[in-house]
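[Target chain]
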Amino acid sequence: MGFSKKFRKAIRDPAHAMEVVKKNIDIKAGKLIYKNTAGFQQNRQGEKTKQEVQKSRTKIIVKEHEDTILSLKNEGLANLGCPFDDKLLKRIIEKYNNFIEDDKHSMSRSKFQDKIYSRVLKDPLDKIPELKDLLSDKIQKMISGYYQGNFQVSYFSIWRNYHIPPEIYDGEKEIFANHWHCDTNDTTQTILFTNLMDVTSEHGPLEVQSIKRTKELVKKGFGYRNNYNLPDNIVNDPNNIIQHIGPVGSTLWAWTTVCLHRATNPAPGKFRDMMQIRLKPSVEPYTDDWPDEASSYQK
């Protein structure tokens, strides 16, 4: 968007223009101090959250998950294989497939020119109550080991991305989080991303760059999701990109507030089904009272 167009838009809506200015300042401050694009306020909130839960923390030794926990802490991501019960996951996927294409049970997660390119399940925990059984005792122990204390599920969503025509995908418009970005959430939060189908590079897999590489790109001048401010061959260097591909159930544990990541575009005729479970440290012990937020999904 050219300067004159931005100026005219600012004149029409000065309140929105001020919010944009504040957001840009917050992002720039966060990049300068923390070397990610989550924003200064969210990084500070992450520090506050750590302080709040410090008193409830205990020394938890989890030898069987030690490599996974170290990978998440040091690299910002850890490949878990398929950590869930196969029969349970199969039942969940069967129900999901019965609902996801039905307008009564799903809704647009992202559309462009009245065409839906990503569809999310509404009220998934009501439709598929088995979802709350996914976090077995073993998985809970692993998560507690990472947070060195209690945790809760802060967000849950389950969705399908479709192919976007090149003339739209290659433009400035971001359709379904397909631009490199860090999530703007409290930076203590992490996400379990699970493929609900066999995913190859043709299905538009999630891509992630490590904490170290994210900091390097920010130091080189990385801008934001709508303007990288760096050459394509640097931002999209394949040597620094991890693709979340693999058989159904494949799960990537990612620290998405400090790692650049994006969705990619499924090939023509392909789609990708994904589930995310967002986690946060907590003073209170884990409960299965998950928030059902997919029906009020906001990009």
Notes: The first strand starts at residue 77 and ends at 79. Residues 27 and 39 are 4 Å apart (CA to CA).
